[in-house]
Amino acid sequence: MPPTDKAWFTKDREDMPLINGVRVHGGWSHSNTTVTATTPETAPAQVPAGPGRFASASPRSCTRASAVLRALAVHYLARPNLEALRVAAGKQNAERARPIVSE
User: What does the pLDDT read at residue 78?
Assistant: First the structure.
């Protein structure tokens, strides 16, 4: 999902997921190495509240978004090319940071 503007960190994305009839997005940093279909129990989810503004999603939407995120994480972590994906993501992050550091 590419950003809707040139800022790579923007939360405004094209084709944001629709959960319980609401467009949601969220970020997740899970320090534990174990991700299953039921843990961690919750993950944050937000809904658009105007241009560049977001609010917490309802508890029901957060619960559903957490289930979707866990399913995606379990699938991602089982990929045979996981290490290559992590290296590619690191390179992409470094390329994005390079112009900022050089300014």
Answer: 92
* CB distance 17 to 11 below 8 Å: no
Provide mean pLDDT across the span 68-96: 89
HEC readout, the chain: CCECCCCCCCCCECCCCEECCEECECCCCCCCCCCCCCCCCCCCCEEECCCCCEEECCHHHHHHHHHHHHHHHHHHHCCCCHHHHHHHHHHHHHHHHHHHHHC
Distances in Å between the Cα of 5 and the Cα atoms of 48, 77, 93 are 15, 30, 17
**Rounded to two decimals, what is the model's pTM?**
0.64
Map tokens 């174990």 to a residue: 34
Give the number of residues written for the chain. Answer: 103
Task: For residue 52, give every residue at least 6 positions away whose Cβ sits within 8 Å of its Cβ, in sequence order, or none.
Answer: 10, 11, 12
Cα–Cα distances in Å, from 22 out to 7, 18, 61, 67?
24, 5, 8, 15
